[in-house]
Amino acid sequence: MAGAPRRKNFTDDEDLAQLRQIHADRPFLRQRGGIMAAWDALATKLVVDENFPRNKVSGKTASGRFDKLVEAHRAAAEEPAKASGVDEDESEKVILLDDLVAMLDDHATKTTAAKETELRKRERE
Q1: How far apart are CA 14 and CA 33, in angstroms?
Q2: What is the distance between the alpha carbons of residues 99 and 119, in angstroms, rounded to a whole number?
Q3: How many domains does the chain contain in total?
Q4: Closest CA to 21 of 60, 48, 56
Q5: Mind listing the pLDDT tens digit for each residue in 21-46?
Q6: Does residue 83 belong to any structural domain of this protein?
Q7: Of the candidates 47, 38, 46, 1, which has an alpha carbon nearest to the alpha carbon of residue 19?
Q8: Rounded to the nearest 5 degrees, what angle is found at the Cα of 104, between the Cα atoms of 99 and 105?
Q9: From CA 105, how far away is CA 120, in angstroms rounded?
């Protein structure tokens, strides 16, 4: 396939620009039915951002990349602390991911609690 475009991996700069925009827009907090529209809007903002070098990205791609970054961040957080006892300097990427993962977990907890409350309410009726 000589004419097929090559897949391009995300760079750290692209990840950082995306995480900054995700932190600002928080598309994962949208109500069901509006989540992909929020990711599409985020992708549009990224494309016009001068700090984001890609000229094309979809909401689905942005969402998928965010999921992979969160998964990698959670895996890295589970690793045992280094034995040296010296704290590592946290990069902006790690700080953003810490904050975003906390928001994700909080949102999941609230959503689960709301569903359980609604279920109990229906059972009483």
Answers
A1: 27
A2: 30
A3: 1
A4: 48
A5: 999 999 988 888 889 999 999 999 99
A6: no
A7: 46
A8: 100
A9: 23
Other Cβ atoms less than 10 A from the Cβ of 17: the count is 20
Asked whether residue 35 is assigned to any structural domain, the reply reads: yes
Tell me which residue has tokens 């700090």.
51
Structure tokens belonging to residue 97:
């991911």
Q: Domain of 47?
A: 12-77+91-124
SS3 assignment, position 119: helix
Chain segment 61-106, per-residue pLDDT in tens? 999 999 999 999 998 887 755 544 555 557 899 999 999 999 999 9
Contact of 38 with 27, CB cutoff 8 Å:
yes
CB within 8 Å of 67: residues ≥ 6 apart:
none
Q: Is 7 inside a domain boundary?
A: no
